[in-house]
């Protein structure tokens, strides 16, 4: 099988340097707070792992929990269906929450998560994404901490997949051909 990876846009070193910078800011904002980090699976698993290890320098002592969401997009149906496959299992009442995802694309996933979390009465919720595709946004939402902005290209690696593959790459790359938007992604 030929490798369709076209171009590495962020290599391992650049990603780790950026994560350390983001964590510097998070450490100031979340100092002396009861922090719960919620990773949105599957895409965030590598980013979240590196994020919390970088955070350890600041002794923020977070709890870590995960939500699993699946979304089904379609180029013919403008709205996307999002389903919770696994909900939050930590008590969030009065906690300061940081939601971590791989990428903010249309923004629908993050909007859905924010609506869900509101019911659990946290004191504060902020969002952190490794990648942001602002030109693709369909709902009015932004992330509080962003690793890198990317254009309207399909990217893989560092947790992000195409059809379940490429999550293991330590870098972020664009694929040779952008896959059909109708494909299911998680
Ligand atoms: P949103 O709900 O449209 O913001 O989509 C967010 C989810 O779509 C992300 O958590 C990713 O799993 C997936 N996604 C969006 N763009 C890409 C991409 O370029 N590569 C891989 N996954 C993507
Ligand atoms: Mg995802």
Task: Please describe the topology of this protein.
Layout: E1 5-10, H1 12-29, E2 35-41, H2 45-55, E3 63-72, E4 81-86, E5 96-104, H3 108-118, E6 124-132, E7 145-149, E8 155-156, E9 172-175
Parallel strand pairs: 2-3, 2-5, 5-6, 6-7
Antiparallel strand pairs: 1-9, 3-4, 8-9
Helix pairs in contact: 1-2
Magnesium ion binds near residues 101 and 186.
What does this protein structure show overall?
The chain is 22% helix and 31% strand. Strand 3 (63-72) and strand 4 (81-86) form a beta hairpin. It is an alpha/beta fold and 186 residues long. It has a six-stranded mixed beta sheet, sandwiched between helices. The protein has helices spanning 12-29, 45-55, 108-118; strands at residues 5-10, 35-41, 63-72, 81-86, 96-104, 124-132, 145-149, 155-156, 172-175. Helix 1 packs across helix 2. It binds inosinic acid and magnesium ion. The site of inosinic acid has 17 residues, from strand 5, helix 3 and strand 8.
